[in-house]
User: Fold this.
Amino acid sequence: MQELYLEVTTRCNLNCRTCIRHSWQEPLGDMDGGTFSLLLQNLPRLQKVQIAGLGEPLCHPDLMAMIEGLKRKANQVELISNGLLLDRETALSFLEVGLDRLILSIDGAEQETYRQIRGGSLGKVLANLERLIELKKGRGCSHPQIGCELVAMKDNIDELPALIKLLQGRGVEFLIVTNVLPYTTEMKDQVLYGEDFLRSLPGRPDPAAVWEHILKELGDMPVSLPAITWEHGGRYCRFARRRALAVSFTGEAAPCYPLLHSYTCHIFDREKAIHKHILGSIHHESLAAIWDAYQPLRTQLDEFSFPDCPTCSGCDMVEENLEDCWGNSPACGDCLWAAGIIQCP
Assistant:
């Protein structure tokens, strides 16, 4: 085990149109002190811990103490946030506890676009970002490295070049662009990938052309761009290859954070029920035992020996992820993360 995706809370201060909360019925909560202490005792030395999951980490009242504890166990600790709760006190705390990387999720260059997608204030996020940058400079800190993750969709794609300029002018050091995963019927029409999307473009351009206007604005800024088309041969599990494990706020472990919870989503033009796939709970067994029991599945995920569900003629087995036609469980044959269409840090 080399990486950990840690969900410290499923609570959030926003209600984004793109959020999984629109398609699940699970209770919200924070990781309690006992669960975190147990996790910390179980952790081996790691390359990286990413504090993210399906909630806003800054909602957790003990976040800074958690980061301090994780810093003793990992070479790098990074955090993904919407940035609205990043006040001066929080920014200073990030500098003091030594957070290595901070990734802000920002999905529009105009306030109205940002409000329609996320429901918050873009101006406040940018002001919080500027203050953090100034505090870093004032204290001579090289950390945290600051990046942004952009969820691309039809409603904001035209604003991404302007957003890149806004971020470059405020000291952002890298970008991650991902596609939207629709959790509701309304969001199905927002996708920028797949055959239906390509057919809708004039002259059916090369898929790489979709990102040309973004690449022109980047200069030397590092960027990770998502795939636009489904490619059977290039699939692999990013989580398995990184030797990663995901742990929920309740202490349950899964192969990846998309399998920490149960929900519905839309894979291309069909609805799919995702059932969580829990490998074990740190309250009942050691993390080492969970990791050892996971190895046969991790090897399969690393080899990615799953059917090519999106290009198949179709069957009712693709309506859920419980089992595929080859007898695999969970069924990962149409995973958009494995195809690089959906990205995570």
Remarks:
- Residues 95 and 141 are 7 Å apart (CA to CA).
- The first strand starts at residue 3 and ends at 6.
- The chain has a mean pLDDT of 91.
- The chain is about 30% helix and 15% strand.
